[in-house]
Amino acid sequence: KKLKIASIPGDGIGKEVVPAAIDVLHTVAELHGGLTFEFTDFPYSCEYYLEHGVMMPEDGMKRLSDFDSIFLGAVGDANLVPDHISLWGLLIKIRREFEQTINVRPAKQLPGIQSPLVNPNDFDIMVVRENSEGEYSSVGGRIYRGEDEIAIQNNVFSRKATERAMRFAFDLASKRKGRVTSATKSNGIVYSMPFWDEVFKDVAESYPNVKTDQQHIDALAAFFVTNPSRFDVVVASNLFGDILSDIGAGIMGSIGVAPAGNINVNGKYPSMFEPVHGSAPDIIGKGIANPVGQIWTAKMLLDHHGEEEMGQVLLDVIEETTKNRIITSDLGGSHSTQDVTNEIINRLKAK
Ligand code: NAI
Ligand code: MG
After folding, report:
1. Residue to substitute in 277, 286, 331, 336 for testing ligand 1 pocket (most ligand atoms within 8 angstroms of CB)
2. Contact 23, 337 (CB under 8 A)
3. pLDDT tier at 132 (50, 70, 90 boundaries)?
4. Is 228 left (phi over 0), alpha (psi -120 to 50) or beta?
5. Taking every annotated instance into account, which residue ranges of this chain make up the domain Isopropylmalate dehydrogenase-like (predicted)?
6. Which residue's CA lies nearest to atom 42 of ligand 1?
7. Would 108 be classed as within a structural domain?
8. What is the signed CA dihedral for 158, 159, 161, 164, rounded to 10 degrees?
9. Residue that is last in its domain, among 221, 252, 283
10. Distance, CA 275 to ligand 1 centroid (Å)?
11. How buried is 79 (Cβ within 10 angstroms: 0-12 exposed, 13-18 middle, 19+ buried)?
């Protein structure tokens, strides 16, 4: 089996952690035997913009559509290009045009890493975020000026997109601990959230083996901090999922370890895998960027293409590496990007 992957290192530390994760994926392929990766590098980035006046060429999306998946580092270098131009011209463009309507983000306690939580209790959560509508809609506007000025932003919840996110969450839970928690706020938001609850109930009926509960987003956010081990899969709207998944990254101890996948559910376009962190301009070129977020993201890519067994091996090796405290400075260690990558590769080779 050959997987054709478009790699977009992007800006800043993306150029440091993507090559590291690609080395790891090649090692995974060797270990597997029957799997090969063919990476094609795309230079789309802020530097590309300075040279060409666009973040990607006109046929960029068409070229990317030929790949099985996209493996992206980070986009954004505000010293070169304003963020709204670079992110909307590349990252958000890909998410929208390739209908990557679901965003999945794990948050799991890594052995050996001190979570900032008082009582972390071995949490292992998957946040499934509806990635295409909800609170982040373009319906609304601004009227009047001065003290009469009004800004209106409508929430849009379609049955299709809501159901799609929930089915994704239930399917995922069926392969995990079998529990889905719905993030709601139907006590305060009186149209969209009661609708969200109804769809949740409807979808739950077709998954009798999955346990369910629902929590209001405010309480849920608090439980992420006080008792994260009670959760398995959490399904949330675009805004709620955005916030919850960042809390998830926070309780792991560093944004540098948090992975994410933008999933095209219908298989019409490639999905895109990228870590949660950005280009980290403050640490570029120092060789200290944590590669774990990008490497864990590679595990999600493996899972997505049905290589769950190899995905698990890779996660095991990441956990052995943190347990042995081969970690970068953001996690309180003193190892380099290359040290951590080598450790992971050597441990894979020893499997
Ligand atoms: P950031 O995630 O790049 O950095 C925040 C802090 O976390 C910094 O102190 C950084 O050094 C640290 N950090 C991040 N990743 C790390 C890693 N792997 N290892 C060690 N430390 C790490 O967020 P920031 O500073 O808000 O944004 C910088 C640029 O990145 C901006 O242009 C922003 O628009 C862009 N960005 C891009 C994202 C993407 O491509 N998905 C996501 C977030 C930001
Ligand atoms: Mg966010």
Report:
1. 277
2. no
3. very high
4. alpha
5. 4-344
6. 278
7. no
8. 170
9. 252
10. 10
11. exposed
